[in-house]
Design a protein that fits this description.
With 312 residues, the chain is mostly helical. The chain has 14 helices and four strands.
């Protein structure tokens, strides 16, 4: 456990010992009553519903024995395993070590299977049914939470992996690179710089170049802001034509594909507040062989792969 102060481990140790001692004292105090054979049992004096009384019978012997066994078990558990906040246990067990052992065991069992596909190119591997099934299992374990079970993502910043629109490139090499190293992207906030009206103007211009309904007057003013606004024009990143830069992960604003939604309200929100998104890196966690299989599965998800294996 990670603690920022040495006080907390001692606190936990004291509370654990005090709790066990309290339970033991209560148990002992409640087992002093003995009833001899033939002796009349007194009532406690408590009454419910008028005439219902409680007899002061001693606790059943089997119940007391089980309670003592639980206390002995608790002490034994604290000796064998960490639980006091200071002592790590006689076996030196930890969740991290347990996970490492399980991963090592799984790697020994499945490692040769993954290694079998390691030298097969991603594009070719994407056509292998068994390899795709293995890749799908990896996807459903590590990727589904963000991109969805159908890999179509969501307009909350999670890309659709089944189309041909790729922010960083959809070639086998680029997908593998994305999985290995992860991606970090940020759209700065311009709300305070531009003001509400200019933000709406730019939003309408962006809708125009992406082929969506727009306000003509606002789009005309937005075009000027897009290309020449100070201190930083939109065109300096997205380009004067708004087609972005795949090498830098800058979105193409003309293709009609929107990571956060393409409605005027969504675009206004993006320009006003900015966006920040991150794809985690998986190389260290999964290893090269698993990433290779996962890349092949993702590559194979694309419904219509362009001939040059690049996004449209």
């Amino acid at each position: 456990m990670d603690f920022t102060s040495g006080f907390w481990p001692i606190y936990i140790l004291v509370m654990v010992i005090a709790s066990l001692a309290f339970v033991l004292v209560v148990l002992v105090s409640q087992t002093k009553l003995k009833i001899k054979k033939g002796e009349k049992v007194e009532v406690t004096g408590h009454k419910w519903d008028g005439d219902l009384e409680e007899y002061n019978n001693p606790l059943p012997g089997w119940w007391v024995a089980m309670f003592y066994m639980t206390i002995v078990f608790a002490v034994g558990y604290l000796v064998a395993y960490p639980g006091s906040g200071v002592y790590q246990g006689a076996f030196g067990w930890s969740a991290q070590n347990q996970h490492a052992k399980e991963v090592e065991s799984a790697n020994k069992q499945y490692g040769p299977i993954y290694a079998k596909y390691a030298k097969v190119p991603v594009a070719e591997l994407a056509k292998d049914e068994q390899a795709r099934e293995l890749g799908k299992r990896l996807y459903m374990t590590y990727c589904m939470q963000c991109h969805g079970a159908d890999a179509r993502g969501a307009t909350t910043g999670f890309p659709n992996l089944t189309d041909d629109v790729w922010l960083w490139g959809g070639s086998a090499e680029k997908i593998t690179e994305t999985l290995n190293k992860g991606r970090v992207n940020q759209m700065p906030a311009f709300g305070e710089v531009l003001g509400e009206e200019k933000v709406r103007d730019v939003a309408n211009y962006v809708r125009k170049i992406s082929g969506q309904p727009f306000n003509e007057a606002r789009a005309l003013r937005g075009a000027v802001v897009f290309t020449s606004a100070k201190p930083l024009a939109c065109a300096s990143c997205h380009g004067p034509d708004g087609k972005g830069n795949m090498d830098a992960g800058i979105p193409n604003l003309t293709d009609g594909d929107w990571l956060y939604g393409g409605s005027e309200a969504s675009i206004v929100e993006t320009i006003t507040n900015g966006r920040q998104n991150q794809m985690p890196a998986w190389q260290e966690f999964l290893g090269d062989d698993k990433v290779h299989l996962l890349a092949a599965y993702v590559y194979g998800l694309r419904a219509n792969q362009p001939k040059d294996n690049q996004p449209k």
